[in-house]
Amino acid sequence: MFTKARIVIAMGILALSLGGCTPSAPDIPKDLSPNEVEALTASDNGKSFLKQISVYHWDDQGAAAAELFAWVPEWAGSSDPNRQETAGQTAYTIAEFLSAESAALLNIETDRTIGDVNPILVSAYTDAIIPYLGQAVSNDSDAKGFKPLDPLDSSMRKTYSMLNVLNSDETSSSKLGQAVFDLIERNRKSLTVELTPGTDASEAAKASVLEVARLVGLASAIGIRPPDAEPLSFDIGVEQTEIDYLLARTSVSGPNNDITSQFFTSDGSLKPPGVVRTQLGEAGWEQYSGMLSRYLSRSKGQKEISNSFAHTAETIAKENNR
């Protein structure tokens, strides 16, 4: 448990620093426990404290300030629900701050961003947020302390602003790219189980499709890049084809009037998009993508899921690129 006295001292230091007339290095409380850091950031002056340490041009690129949050990823994965709650609440406070102050954080010193000025601190913020990236774009009832910044049926403007700040540093951007890629892959694997041949899509499957749509829409709008081995950007059209493939494979049983034989294996299984691109190139992949879309249009349920993916991803990307 944190001690109230230590928090009072920390808040006193902050008040003095905020009241100064000349810019000076903010005082960073030393040796605060995770519970004390959570209490400090969640206090009435917590957002002011976060802004102070974020916009100041540190000689160490924000390394000392970053240490305040180094514990969050470990506690996020803890089996202790109290630690999970503390980590989630701290990450949520950081996310709210980054979203609300995105304009200031992306223009600290005449077109210089927080990523330019304090990249190590941005990296710490990114490490704190990544365990909750899935919760930021889904209705996860098991999440402790963290919840979406936006309504899930919206353009996700607050989430976009938060991620845009994290993307301002190259190292953090790479971490985000890997995290988005991993989440998409996790949802694809879930969909292979949730989308069962011969049955209608479950609510869990529909939720997974929309989670991918939100992730891809946000990543596309911000310009977050996938890992080096992947395409240069997260592409809505590419992911649409992946989703359409997962939908189509639940009902298609071989060549038909919509999908020709070149897109099936010898045993009648539908080839995955990656295999099609490798074997037949971009032209073949585009033909395959169009055929999947035409095939799905004949099933109301499958068409609705495919369309919901496209609408969600494209709306988020378009609205946040204005």
Protein described:
- Keywords: Signal.
- Residues 1-25 form the signal peptide.
- The chain contains 16 helices and no strands.
- It is mainly α and 322 residues long.
- Residues 1-5 and 15-22 have low confidence and may be disordered.
Provide a concise account of the structure shown:
With 322 residues, the protein is mainly α.
What percentage of amino acids are in beta strands? Answer: under 5%
Counting structural domains, the number is 2
Q: With helices defined by DSSP (H or I, 4 residues minimum), what is the helix count? A: 16
Q: How helical, in percent, are the residues? A: 55-70%
- Overall strand count: 0
Mean pLDDT across the residues is 91
- Main pleated sheet: none
Kindly provide the radius of gyration, computed on alpha-carbon positions and rounded to a whole number of angstroms: 23 Å
Coarse shape: elongated
Protein structure class: mainly alpha
Keywords: Signal
Signal peptide: 1-25
Protein name: Lipoprotein
